[in-house]
Design a protein that fits this description.
- The chain is an all-alpha fold.
- It has helices at 3-27, 52-73, 76-103, 115-128, 136-159.
- It has one domain (3-159).
- Helix 1 (3-27) crosses helix 3 (76-103), helix 1 (3-27) crosses helix 4 (115-128) and helix 3 crosses helix 4 (115-128).
């Protein structure tokens, strides 16, 4: 199995999670998921950057990618489920990252290297694992390619004025 094949297989598998994670940057805004509530430590649970609209748009976008993948490979129900689980996992992983960042005093848009780039993918893979987990080679490839892809897309989002910081 060649490098190009492994890269393609990895991107194909994780694409619903990638799209779900990126969509709230474009389609988010509105009511924060935590509705301004504070955790027991007196800090916001997630912060203003995690919104109901962003979460639902991310979930819908990830499911849509799963739907398209299912149509392409003629396995609609399987890929719809994969798309849903990967998208939900990515969004929950991102929320977990925001929750952790608030606990350690990192504000909205603040960097947490590793957590920002891999948290959403790890939770997505864990959530989808009972249904379908790719080979270890694909998992390792996903873990290797995600940080530079995440940083690159964040930089593009910053240049387009969608993000306040380039990381």
């Amino acid at each position: 199995m060649g490098l190009a094949y492994m890269l393609g297989e990895s991107l194909w598998f994780i694409l619903p999670a990638y799209v779900a994670n990126a969509t709230p940057v474009v389609a988010g805004g509105g009511t924060p998921l935590d509705r301004g509530r504070l955790f027991i430590d007196g800090r916001r649970i997630f912060g203003d950057g995690k919104t109901v609209r962003g979460f639902l748009a991310g979930l819908a976008a990830g499911v849509l990618v799963g739907l398209i993948e299912g149509i392409v490979v003629n396995s609609l129900s399987h890929y719809l489920l994969l798309g849903f689980l990967l998208a939900l996992g990515a969004l929950l992983g991102d929320l977990l990252g925001s929750f952790i960042k608030r606990r350690i005093g990192i504000g909205r848009g603040g960097a947490a290297p590793g957590l920002d780039q891999l948290g959403f993918v790890i939770v997505a893979l864990l959530l989808v694992s009972p249904i379908s987990l790719p080979s270890w080679g694909v998992v390792v490839t996903i873990l290797i390619i995600t940080p530079p892809l995440h940083l690159g897309t964040n930089f593009v989002g910053y240049k387009l004025g969608l993000k306040s910081r380039p990381h």
